[in-house]
Amino acid sequence: MKWSAFQRRNGRPDDYELWAARQEPFPRLGDCLVPSCPEGAGHYIGLCPYHFLRYIREGREGNA
Fold it and tell me: What spatial distance separates the first Cα and last Cα of the chain, rounded to whole Å?
């Protein structure tokens, strides 16, 4: 739940710690799909930020 929705529902601006304690982390995207890359994926297509930017510069081959 977003912080703004939590505030509207509870009406108290001082409950940030309560809201933050209930939040779940985003699921991990796995490792970068480039076999020699040790980084974790930073984009839903499975590439780390470096390889994703390179993919963009190369013209988005495959239009993923």
Answer: 29
